[in-house]
Amino acid sequence: MVYWVFGYGSLIFKPPPHAVEHKAPGRVVTVIEAREWHMLEGITVSEGAISSDDYVWGMAYRIDPQYEDEVKTYMEYREKNGYTCHFVPVYNASPDGLEEIAVVDNAEIWIGKLDNPAFIGYESLDNLARIISERSGPSGLNKEYLYKLAESVRQLYPHVRDEYLFGLEAAVRALEEDDY
Catalytic positions, please? Predict the structure, then answer.
């Protein structure tokens, strides 16, 4: 079996090591299961009801087979804080653009779970923007991570309008302007 990793967030612009091929755009159900996300928003969604807003665009990476074990160890370490490994198909538009087809049958994805002690839960966009504008982590400023992600999504998927991501980016930038 060919080993594929599907990533969102920093995995879009910071791929795992030994990736020998990537496919973009790739799309899978959101990194937190849609039903759980809607529950946090206070919205009840019937079983099987998924809207186009419930998909995540990301990047699928095919890993060089000789490094598969190394990359699996890397991904387990990178996603260790409350994420669980799942395998999903990744879709892309057909050559004529009229339908979506599976381009990878079985890609690894790491999904956050609500019972993770590090998961904060749903926050208002304004509160989240304030936190992101003020904080940093081992990889640098949180706002720089957000800006890289938003720019990567714009560059890779110009036909996609991720309202939540772009709204959060705008809110953080507005806070920056207020500081000047």
Answer: 79
Name the nearest CA neighbour of 29 among 123, 128, 107, 119.
107
State in words which class domain 1-118 has: alpha beta
Question: CATH 3.10.490: which residues of the chain?
Answer: 1-118
120-166 confidence digits (pLDDT tens): 777 889 998 998 999 887 778 889 989 999 999 999 888 888 888 99
Tell me the three state secondary structure of residue 180.
Answer: coil
Q: How far apart are CA 119 and CA 144, in angstroms?
A: 21
Handedness of CA 64, 68, 70, 75 (dihedral sign): positive
42-78, pLDDT tens digit by residue? 887 776 566 666 678 889 999 999 999 999 999 999 8
Q: Cα separation of 176 and 143, whole Å?
A: 10
Flag whether the pTM goes above 0.85: no
Return the closest-CA partner of residue 62 out of 7, 115, 113, 101: 7
